[in-house]
Design goal:
alpha/beta, 8 strands, globular, binds pyridoxal-5'-phosphate
Length: 239
């Protein structure tokens, strides 16, 4: 097995360097370790090295993995659902996760709020925006983002934390820059417009293994990184 703790040390240095190059404090970007398809033991190894936030895309996989990883780690971890959110997923996400990044419709947000167990704190959420234009199918239209944010911010069991995007996979990281810049611009407009709580609306979830440096230059506060941390994903392996 690759040494994920070594990858984490190196990645933390690279994140800090990217912040410095962008003229930002070295601790201004949070790392979300994207652990989809990865074994509980690898998650526990990262947890032992101080990583606390993990991202999963598949509800079925996450179900058993969350319990297994926390048992191995011996501590609760913070779980972010970053996969597409359809109606049939909301109950499971509301029950098991701490964050959901892919809110693109009010109906889904309303279900998450209604299904969030009373005993748990509000679910932290980001509104996903389609900043890549027509080629991408996920995320709300940029022109609808402000209204969706205002409606989501009013739901009792959700806490609106910011915006998220997944730019189209392009052949070089620099090609994602306009999408990241657009998301940041929207983020600042929505913060300034007053319909969201600016003390909570503090998250720009953008940047993955191939383009996190560009995302940090454009203002990302949370990067979602899988393969640069765990190595390549192997799909279809036994869970
Ligand atoms: C898989 C995934 C990531 C991580 O991708 P890598 O290229 O492996 O870093 C980040 N965000 C989302 C939404 C994903 O589905």
């Amino acid at each position: 097995m690759i040494n994920v703790a070594d990858h984490l040390t190196k990645l933390r240095q690279q994140l800090a360097q990217a912040c410095t190059r962008a003229g930002r404090p070295a601790d201004s970007v949070r790392l979300l370790a994207v652990s989809k398809t990865q074994a509980p033991a690898a998650i526990a190894a990262l947890a032992a090295a101080g990583q606390t936030a993990f991202g999963e895309n598949y509800l079925q996989e996450a179900d058993s993995k969350i319990a297994a990883a926390e048992a191995l780690a011996g501590t609760p971890l913070e779980w972010h659902f970053i996969g597409p959110l359809q109606s049939n997923k909301t109950a499971g996400v509301a029950r098991r996760f701490d964050w959901a990044h892919g809110i693109e419709r009010l109906k889904i947000a309303q279900r998450l709020s209604a299904q969030r167990p009373d005993a748990r704190p509000p679910l932290e959420v980001c509104v996903q925006v389609n900043v890549s234009g027509e080629i991408s199918k996920s995320g709300c239209a940029p022109a609808q983002a402000a209204a969706l944010c205002a409606a989501v911010a009013a739901l009792p069991k959700l806490r609106l934390r910011g915006l998220m995007c997944i730019p189209e996979a392009l052949d070089n990281a620099a090609a994602a820059r306009p999408a990241f810049a657009r998301l940041r611009q929207l983020f600042e407009q929505i913060r300034a417009a007053g319909a969201v709580d600016p003390t909570q609306f503090d998250t720009l979830s953008m940047g993955m293994s191939g383009d996190y440096e560009v995302a940090i230059e454009e203002g990302a506060t949370l990067v979602r990184i899988g393969s640069a941390l765990f190595g390549p994903r192997v799909y279809g392996s036994p869970k």
